[in-house]
């Protein structure tokens, strides 16, 4: 081994020995900061309407169904998260879609507004009642098409009247879908106030 190589090996071993003995205090690991939970203030309702025992299929009259261009309706699958009853309304014009109406007596709009999730949300008003509209996180409110829109109206603390639109074909813009759910839930809310 040449003197130059031997010197290089000695220097390298010395550096490694010093590096191995050197203690670097990088501090204690800490969890990532938790996301700040924001709380959205929900405006007051003009009155409370209890949704317990409400039949969703009775919340749209024949005249309202005609305006919404519903050609068929009937009980839908129960809401899986709460379990609340639902009613499905099939529409062909201006496109094929399904409206699902559910009186949620165990979940209010505050759960949507104050929690993160895979939906975009905006606070609106429906005939004086606070409400929230929901769309898929991957969509924008002005997209030429969307995957769904839901309008949930706060009828009492921890309760919401939910109208969801699921398109069968991609002929409606996101704005059209949200306008239709708004129109449909307004009609259902008007009927609800006559029976409660």
Automatic annotation (TrEMBL):
InterPro entries per the UniProt record, alphabetical: DUF3558
PROSITE patterns: PROKAR_LIPOPROTEIN (PS51257)
Pfam family for this entry, one: DUF3558
Keyword Signal in record: yes
Keywords (A to Z) from UniProt: Signal
Signal sequence, start to end: 1-19
Source domain of life: Bacteria
Disordered: region residues: 24-47
The protein's name in its UniProt record: Secreted protein
